[in-house]
Amino acid sequence: MADKMDYASSGVDIDLEGSAVASLVSSLSKSVRPTGTPGAPVDLPGGFGGLIEFGDHLLALATDGVGSKLQIAAALNEWSGVGIDCMAMNVNDLLCVGAEPIAFVDYVAVPKPDPEVHAALGASLAEACRLARVTMAGGETASLPGIVTELDLSGTALGYLKKGNAITGENLTAGDVMIGLPSSGIHSNGYSLVRRIIEHAGLQYTDPAPFSSQSPGREIVRFNDDNQAITIGEIFLNPTRIYCDPVVDLINQSQLEECSFSINNLKAICHITGGGLSNLLRLHETLGWEITNPLTVHPEFSWLGDLGAVETWEMYRTFNMGCGMIIAVSEQHAGEILGWLQDRMSGVDIIGKVVDTGRRVTHKPLGIEYSHY
Amino acid sequence: MADKMDYASSGVDIDLEGSAVASLVSSLSKSVRPTGTPGAPVDLPGGFGGLIEFGDHLLALATDGVGSKLQIAAALNEWSGVGIDCMAMNVNDLLCVGAEPIAFVDYVAVPKPDPEVHAALGASLAEACRLARVTMAGGETASLPGIVTELDLSGTALGYLKKGNAITGENLTAGDVMIGLPSSGIHSNGYSLVRRIIEHAGLQYTDPAPFSSQSPGREIVRFNDDNQAITIGEIFLNPTRIYCDPVVDLINQSQLEECSFSINNLKAICHITGGGLSNLLRLHETLGWEITNPLTVHPEFSWLGDLGAVETWEMYRTFNMGCGMIIAVSEQHAGEILGWLQDRMSGVDIIGKVVDTGRRVTHKPLGIEYSHY
To answer: Residue B61's domain spans which residues?
Structure first.
């Protein structure tokens, strides 16, 4: 039997990271910008941070990087998707408060600049801007041979929303319906574990995938010849889905007078990132989440779980497992909203509901649950 | 005689960096956001990028990192200033278009999180927020043991200004007066060369400085005991000056009805970064800059230049040499504006003027000039 693997053994200590971040945050004092002036901090219910006042609007900043997925990109010298990954990690976070992303800046740190790599990154970021419908508002490339051994890519996205229109989870009630949006693959989380599993199994990213990559609601962006078998690397580097289309449109639609549902019927939006299903716990202090009809698990997750003998519980708190975003909506409008989303994205479905039986996420078919993150 | 050193020999190839960035930028297509809507890009005269529309305002993003100054911080495990450096590099750039910084996010990449280092970073960023008067609107810490060998710190600042109030250099005319604002030291540029000079000389950052650190308009922030001699490391790690106070106040003052000068009298603002004096060339297509009365050169610059046998011409296009920001103002209001600034910051002075004898920067007392960057 293979050694059982988990995220901590893959070299990332989540608890240590948490305590480091807590140290940083606890040092930050209150803002000097007074309430009612541009830049004043806004504390939303549900603990969403990063919002500031700006007249009749709120502005939101999100900052994040691509992380160790970049090491697979570097191994294959294949950069066509990582700009999209970087954009997605940031704009998908903005969507969760109901903000429309409008601008983006990137930060690249390299041991030595390589014009070819940068051209590929530029093309990837341009495509990402198109998908997220944002303006590229700048960027920085730093040569740091003493600090980085490989390319690091991160970015910051700016979004806005009308005051009073923030989506926070505050109005969630038992019975609200969970709509799942399919992911495109592993997205940009869990790659330390992915890399360890592949390494431990003695496989190469250039090996043909020993499974079919077919899965509802997603396609693999090929970077090898179409007539070659799809490789593990192509599946693993599939760009993270950017949910601006359809989520920004859904938010805007809900504010139209002729729309049968309103923005108040969009109760909460959750970007499924490093904590997997446990991300849902952030959205409400007391309510729980019951998944009865999960989206299809992409085949790479099942294959990786088997290959690394990773516990199912661990898989679902590390990876998105096929569902990259969850929107909780009012029960009475769930059908309309579902239909609206299905017209714009294939693979969207109702996956479960909000329950008042305690603050936990339960995956009913697998019998697993999460009560902390 | 010591080997002559320059920036390229210190391991950073500026031309290669430029061509890598050009590759990236050329791939970026036009924004999908139409003129007149939030997020639409704004092209200012003078080539300032990074601005977007937002109703009656423009929003500006700046992103930058601390760079190889971090390697000295790491060598001394002294992080109290680098948050201020990171903030300064970003907000000082925003000031150059006349934007008031309002929010900031940081991105930290580490091989392994260290709560003590993060606590020090947090304290430094909190102090930076106070100095720049911005709200800390989020941040990300990434553990990337396969990508970074030491801590990398970067950030993004958000600023705003009223439409029509952008400061671009467009209205510069011969005779405009250059006002210099003193730097606090090396700031956050040129550290690859600094490190190479020190290494080549066989010195340690913990060595007492073999020169007096006294210089008008700046003080060294001590992190060793006050009764020990000041070290080279303390001088080199002196935090970058944040110019929000007095520059934001100057911009706001100029918009008051009772103010004798107007925002139109503030013609251009230049943050002196990696290109040294050559940064001024970005501000106008045809006009030149004549420095006749430079601010005092901080002693560390003279010492480093001698120690590394660096050409004077090279020094002034790598370092700020004592002057971290230059504001070009109308001749008829130069006296008032100078007085206003001197009341708020010591060491400010008139350093020269704008001339119509060709697009070059001339340092008259030293007989050096720059016509490209």
So the answer is: 42-162
